[in-house]
């Protein structure tokens, strides 16, 4: 099943598709409610939603980011391969929809970067879950762009400001349920900046797999339905290039997580 939230008749409405027919929730149920176990009443949507109608699918309670989780990224940056996942918070308030504007305040940051990622949506409350059981708590998957202020990361040493600014986490357009994703470790990830391909990788290159990341996070924190784990990004970020490339007002950034979703966001200034 594929779930999204669309702008319909001046309100946001939960929609779902089984691959052939789109339906809408008629009782105000949100996608977060469904992830938590709600069973809404469905009625036919009558047409396929268009790309511009999709909004933020839902606002995750907690977003866990994972850094340096691709072998090609570690090589590109010249870092040592991490022994355990590099974990950081991505603020819930940073989440925006798949076509919303990314707002860059140049008084705060001038080194804004892209990071296309596979996001894992947790569907079951869990703590200290074993790797062998971890896939059982996955509700589904979502496309994500972990926008990052590299100058703030470098200044602080830790990554809260650099990762958590408003609009710095486009999500969606859809959440694809786990039963439709046969091989989460074989998903292509691509990014285009102003139409030029800048990232082209695969989740097969992950250092820590999806179940390993879930298990690791659950050792320290209780995971709740709707929480999202961002699983890292392939090589090709702008800040690792020579010369460095940073997002500027007027740029467009498009990401594709194969079989999960595509986004197209415009960068605007403040």
TrEMBL record:
GO molecular function: hydrolase activity
InterPro entries given in the database record: FAH, Fumarylacetoacetase-like_C, Fumarylacetoacetase_C_sf
Keyword Metal-binding recorded: yes
Fumarylacetoacetase-like C-terminal domain span: 62-268
Keyword Hydrolase found: yes
Pfam families assigned to the protein according to its UniProt record, in alphabetical order: FAA_hydrolase
Alphabetically ordered keywords of this record: Hydrolase, Metal-binding
Family the UniProt entry places it in: Belongs to the FAH family.
Name listed for the protein in its UniProt record: Fumarylacetoacetate hydrolase family protein
């Amino acid at each position: 099943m594929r779930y999204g939230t669309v702008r319909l008749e001046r309100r946001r409405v939960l929609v779902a598709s089984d691959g052939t027919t789109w339906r809408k929730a008629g009782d105000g149920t949100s996608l977060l409610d469904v992830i938590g176990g709600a069973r809404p009443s469905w009625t036919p949507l009558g047409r396929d939603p268009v790309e511009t109608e999709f909004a933020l699918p839902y606002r995750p309670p907690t977003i866990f980011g994972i850094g340096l989780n691709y072998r090609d990224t570690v090589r590109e940056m010249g870092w040592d391969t991490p022994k355990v996942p590099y974990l950081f918070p991505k603020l819930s308030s940073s989440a925006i929809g798949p076509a919303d504007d990314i707002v860059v305040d140049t008084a705060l940051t001038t080194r804004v970067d892209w990071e296309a990622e596979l996001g894992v949506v947790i569907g079951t409350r869990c703590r200290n879950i074993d790797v062998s059981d971890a896939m059982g708590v996955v509700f589904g998957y979502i496309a994500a762009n972990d926008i990052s202020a590299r100058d703030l990361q470098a200044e602080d040493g830790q990554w809260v400001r650099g990762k958590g600014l408003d609009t710095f986490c486009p999500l969606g357009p859809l959440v694809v349920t786990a039963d439709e994703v046969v091989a989460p470790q074989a998903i292509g990830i691509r990014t285009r900046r102003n139409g030029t391909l800048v990232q082209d990788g695969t989740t097969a290159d992950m250092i820590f797999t999806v179940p390993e990341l879930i298990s690791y996070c659950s050792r320290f924190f209780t995971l709740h339905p709707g929480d999202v784990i961002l699983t890292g990004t392939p090589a090709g970020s702008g800040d690792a290039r020579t010369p460095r490339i940073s997002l500027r007002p007027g740029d467009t950034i498009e990401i594709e997580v194969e079989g999960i979703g595509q986004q197209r966001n415009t960068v605007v200034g403040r």
